[in-house]
UniProtKB/TrEMBL annotation:
Keyword hit for Amino-acid biosynthesis: yes
CDD domains linked to this entry: ACT_3PGDH-xct, PGDH_4
Cross-referenced Pfam families: 2-Hacid_dh (PF00389), 2-Hacid_dh_C (PF02826), ACT (PF01842), PGDH_inter (PF19304)
Chain's role: Catalyzes the reversible oxidation of 3-phospho-D-glycerate to 3-phosphonooxypyruvate, the first step of the phosphorylated L-serine biosynthesis pathway. Also catalyzes the reversible oxidation of 2-hydroxyglutarate to 2-oxoglutarate.
Pathway(s) of this molecule: Amino-acid biosynthesis; L-serine biosynthesis; L-serine from 3-phospho-D-glycerate: step 1/3
UniProt xrefs under InterPro entries: ACT-like_dom_sf, ACT_dom, ASB_dom_sf, D-isomer_2_OHA_DH_cat_dom, D-isomer_DH_CS, D-isomer_DH_CS1, D-isomer_DH_NAD-bd, NAD(P)-bd_dom_sf
Main enzyme class: oxidoreductase
Domain ACT: 462-534
Family to which this protein belongs: Belongs to the D-isomer specific 2-hydroxyacid dehydrogenase family.
Protein name from the UniProt record: D-3-phosphoglycerate dehydrogenase
Catalytic reaction list: (2R)-3-phosphoglycerate + NAD(+) = 3-phosphooxypyruvate + NADH + H(+); (R)-2-hydroxyglutarate + NAD(+) = 2-oxoglutarate + NADH + H(+)
């Protein structure tokens, strides 16, 4: 059995490491706190990498990671992993989206309470002996009846909102994916824009991923929309807030304070502009997910996901390709093999340098999750012209884009002779070349090659002979194969209804010698001879 080496480069729970190490064929090295140059040196030895937020998986790391197949993020945010570079290098990136939801919501809520009641500076004052002065200085804010804006109403935002409602706060939420029905169900006001949510808010809490679109989501203009004396809570990512604008807004008195678990640069420098403020502010060092429970959840989840990926090929919580759980895999598994054969067939028979690949699904299959089936056809098509290992299921779409190959997937409801049918078509200018396949029982079969109906295995050695449709040709082919000592395993004939084209598909038991191919090619009535191993 192949051995996969996995590097755990950020601290995860012991149980997670144990679960991974116990998997057959997987060996684990825990090596945390590596400097970037140290990671670059060793990453080439590993097939899997487990990270939290500290390891930066840069394009340089991915370029050096010659054997890397999968990165598991024990947590939610994947902004420390260069997604494009991972995809281009064919590395699957998975996170564990649910394991730290409650802990992070609780931590963000703690920050809100702490900022409202000056817990941070008051605690320091007590330790410094300023008890009396602190009683005067640190009068707080009550949260009861205050208006809370939640930006990002996903898993954590929703849990935060529920807790705020228990504190009798009015919740307004902005999230581009939040429907009115869901907002009604959660009893929150639905804002159409971030500005609408922030206008008149007493507290804002952020629960969105950091992306180019959400970078500096909270800026000076948006802070100005909030009520005087408002609080800013950020337990998502530092880059979501313009830290200088926040400092100025707190200094001006418009914003009363903040609770921040995350910073634009982590760890933040000691002279960070926000650290000179001491009222209504509370900071924690990215602790949102740091509870025993959350770490055990995400540590075990990431271990199981990587184990399943390496051992069974199951793909769960991938952010750069469609997931493939065991049930879906069972449902579409035979179609993956069929798609690979169709892609390979097209690479050999279809036009070179095609403009477009179209994969269409007929029958009940059209209602299933076929994303991976299409990717498999594309991968097999591209693999034929690229050396081993350059193309895989993760990077195939990116390579197609680089090549200018337009890939589309469609579902077609028109009836065919087959219950379900996968059609894969290559297009170059006006030329179209299509092949199709189906499942007979659970057995994948190729049933159409360039509009000729065939019945052909998806694996084996084949001779495709295009010939005139006239008596005697099959006999000539059979005799030539027999004389060359090539045994016929299966043979099928197909022709167009007007009998202008005919195809003989022969599955053979051994590689046809070049002399046999030359003989067939020079035989009158034979137009084309192609050999192919599927
Ligand atoms: N401080 C910490 O230790 C932790 C921080 N996090 C951060 O919290 C973030 C949220 O986590 P989850 O709630 O689990 O993720 P989620 O995916 O369940 O929710 C994110 C929500 O943000 C929404 N969204 C995306 N762009 C938006 C925009 N421009 N404006 C408003 N909403 C937008 C999405 O539609 C989604 O509903 C993560 O991306 C991560 O960065 C997560 C866990 C721990
Ligand atoms: O899950 C997340 O997004 C987090 O930010 C948690 O980060 P951490 O795993 O504690 O470095």
């Amino acid at each position: 059995m192949a051995t996969y080496r996995v590097l755990v480069s950020d601290p995860i729970s012991e149980k997670g490491v144990e679960a991974l190490a116990a998997a057959p064929g997987i060996s684990v090295d825990v090596n945390t706190g590596l400097k970037p140059e140290e990671l670059l040196k060793i990453i080439g030895d590993y097939h899997g990498l487990v990270v939290r937020s500290e390891t930066k998986v840069t394009p340089e790391v991915l370029a050096a990671a010659k054997n890397l197949k999968a990165i598991g993020r024990a947590g939610v945010g994947v902004d420390n992993i260069d997604r494009k570079a991972a995809t281009d290098h064919g590395v699957i990136v998975m996170n564990t989206p649910t394991g730290n939801t409650i802990s992070t919501a609780e931590h963000a809520f703690t920050l809100m309470l702490s900022a409202a009641r000056n817990i941070g500076p008051a605690h320091s004052a007590v330790l410094k002996g300023d008890f009396k002065a602190a009683r005067k200085a640190y009068q707080g804010i009550e949260l009861n009846t205050k208006r809370l804006a939640v930006l990002g109403m996903g898993r954590i935002g929703t849990e935060f909102a529920k807790r705020a409602q228990a504190f009798n706060m009015t919740v307004v939420a902005y999230d581009p994916f939040l429907t009115q029905a869901r907002a009604d169900e959660l009893k929150v006001e639905l804002a159409k824009t971030p500005d609408e949510a922030l206008k008149g808010a007493d507290v804002v809490t952020l629960h969105v991923p950091l992306t180019p679109e959400t970078n500096r989501l909270i800026n000076a203009d948006r802070l100005a929309l909030m009520n005087k004396g408002a609080l800013v809570i950020n337990c998502a990512r530092g880059g979501l807030v313009d830290e200088v604008a926040l400092k100025e807004a707190i200094e001006s008195g418009h914003i009363a304070g903040a609770g921040l678990d995350v910073f634009e640069v982590e760890p933040p420098p000691n002279d960070h502009p926000l650290f000179t403020l001491n009222k209504h502010v509370v900071y924690t060092p990215h602790l949102g997910a740091s509870t025993n429970e959350a770490q055990e959840n995400v540590g075990i989840q990431v271990a199981e996901q990587l184990r399943d990926f390496f051992v069974t090929g199951e793909i769960k919580n991938a952010i750069n390709m469609p997931s493939l759980d065991a049930a879906t895999r069972a449902a579409v598994g035979p179609y993956l093999d069929l798609a690979a054969a169709l892609g390979k067939l097209l690479a050999k028979l279809g036009p070179e340098n095609p403009d477009a690949l179209r994969v269409s699904y007929h029958g009940p299959l059209a209602t299933k999750d076929t994303g991976l089936v299409s990717r498999t056809a594309l991968m097999a098509l591209l693999e034929a012209s690229r050396p081993d290992g350059q193309v895989n299921i993760v990077n195939a779409p990116a390579i197609a884009t680089q090549l200018g190959l337009d890939v589309t997937e469609s579902t077609i409801n028109a009836k065919t002779e087959f219950n379900e049918l996968v059609v894969v078509e290559l297009k170059k200018g006006d030329v179209r070349y299509r092949v199709a396949g189906t499942l007979i029982g659970q057995s994948p079969r190729i049933v159409e090659i360039d509009k000729l109906y065939v019945d052909c295995n998806i694996a084996g050695r084949f001779l495709f002979v295009e010939n005139d449709d006239r008596p005697g040709i099959v006999g000539v082919i059979g005799t030539a194969l027999g004389n060359a000592g090539v045994n016929i395993a299966n043979m099928g004939l197909a022709r167009t209804s007007d009998r202008t084209r005919a195809l003989t598909v022969i599955e053979v038991d051994s590689e046809p010698p070049a002399s046999l191919l030359d003989l067939l090619k020079s035989t009158p009535g034979i137009v084309k001879v192609i050999t192919l191993e599927l």
